[in-house]
Design a protein that fits this description.
- Belongs to the H-rev107 family.
- Its EC number is 2.3.1.135.
- There is one protein chain.
- This protein has about 230 residues and is an alpha+beta fold.
- The protein has 2 domains: about 130 residues, endopeptidase fold (from Nostoc punctiforme) (Alpha-Beta Complex), CATH 3.90.1720; about 40 residues.
- The protein is about 45% helix and about 15% strand.
- Strands 5-1-2-3-4-6 form a 6-stranded antiparallel beta sheet.
- A hairpin with a 2-residue loop joins strand 2 and strand 3.
Length: about 230
């Protein structure tokens, strides 16, 4: 039987990449990948209030289409907490800004072009509607909700990420299916006594990325670790 610790650690690494929404860079690239040129996407099929999804390798990024090639979406970003210069904040968010935003638990609901939002990925339109059936709000209501929320906001993987933002705007209820799957994965790793090392990593990551109170998290981390050391 294969040792589950390396598998769990590998899975944890993938989920941590989801936490920070890191954009994958092409092999051999030493800097940020420039987004496609304007006009790369055919926006004629998009309607104001549509929910746009961009599947990535390890996660899905979400936004609300506002019309005229504009998308409102929530992204972790450190800049809104340290400057009020809109010109700086409106620049395309780099990986460094993303990571620092996750650590500081700060974000912004920003309006970008479709090209900047999708960053070369394929776009799905209203793909989540099938999960909410009769809860879909009018397109105009969804767009207005998104516009009202534009600006700096708190960031939390569990309570306020890009999926929470779009589901609130279009369906009236902030939920995140990606977060639910991540939490179930964490629970499975922690419950597996053979994956103690991965459990330690999960606990430490929760402190750094999710802001979990040390008083409740540290026992979960170190008690299994000490048992593993003693065994």
């Amino acid at each position: 039987m294969k040792n589950p610790v390396p598998q769990a650690a590998s899975l944890l690494l993938e989920k941590l990449m989801l936490l920070v929404h890191i954009r994958p860079l092409p092999a051999g690239s030493g800097g940020e990948t420039p987004p496609p040129a304007p006009g790369y996407y055919d926006t004629s099929c998009f309607k104001r209030g549509d929910l746009l999804e961009v599947p990535r390798t390890l996660f899905i990024h979400f936004g609300i289409y506002l019309g005229e090639n504009r998308v409102a979406h929530l992204m972790p970003d450190i800049l809104p907490s340290i400057t009020s210069d809109r010109r700086q904040i409106q620049q395309v968010v780099t990986n460094k800004r993303l990571i620092l935003g996750v650590i500081a638990r700060t974000a912004s609901v920003r309006v970008d072009t479709v090209e900047d939002f999708a960053y070369g990925g394929s776009i799905l339109v209203n793909h989540m509607d099938r999960l909410f059936e009769d809860q879909v709000l009018s397109s105009e209501e969804a767009a207005r909700r998104a516009e009202k929320l534009v600006g700096a906001t708190a960031y939390s993987l569990l309570w306020n990420n890009c999926e929470h933002f779009v589901t609130y705007c279009r369906y009236g209820a902030p939920v995140s299916f990606q977060t639910d799957k991540f939490c179930e994965t964490v629970k499975m790793i922690i419950r597996d006594q053979r994956s103690v090392l991965a459990s330690v990593l999960v606990g430490l990551a929760s402190i750094v990325c999710l802001g979990v109170a040390p008083s409740t998290t540290l026992p979960t981390i170190f008690i299994p670790f000490f048992l593993w050391m003693a065994g």
